Amino acid sequence: MRFTLASYISLFLLLVFTQISCTEKEVPVSLSIELIDKGITMTTSNAGEGTVEIYLTSENETEGELLVKALNSSGLEIARSKAIMTLQKDDAKLFAFNFDKSLNLDSVVKYQVDLRKK
What would the pLDDT profile of 101-116 be if each residue is shown by its tens digit? Predict the structure, then answer.
């Protein structure tokens, strides 16, 4: 079996990109107690590249403005994104939150999903 220069370059790039994706940190996403008390459950979440996606289910009819706060290692908010939530009784919906490109993703250690205070 004979390898060409293109084969070696392809293999090298595959190894580099595999290493990058393996070292990407997983950032946890959690619901506030207030949302949990309202009967909201988060069944899945995905955080990466400045976007957070959450799938919420509801026991009761609930509406309001969701805030996803990016928190640093000191527990301080460093960015936020929002969306309007309208869930019927026994409903479910996927919500996506986009953060500003200026957010330093390496500083984010956790995302907290809250309900905006009125």
Answer: 999 999 999 999 999 9
Q: Which tokens go with 74?
A: 């000191």
The Cα–Cα gap between 59 and 57 comes to: 7
Q: What is the pLDDT of residue 3?
A: 54
Q: How far is CA 62 from CA 13, 32, 53, in A?
A: 48, 15, 19
| DSSP-assigned beta bridge partners for residue 56 | 42, 93
Q: Which residues contact 111 (CB under 8 A, 6 or more apart)?
A: 27, 28, 29, 30, 45, 47, 52, 68, 69, 70, 71
User: Are the C-beta atoms of residues 109 and 25 closer than 8 Å to each other?
Assistant: no
SS3 state at 70 = strand
Domains and CATH numbers, the chain: 26-115 (2.60.40)
Task: Locate 63 and state its tokens.
Answer: 């509406």
* pLDDT, mean of residues 12-18: 54
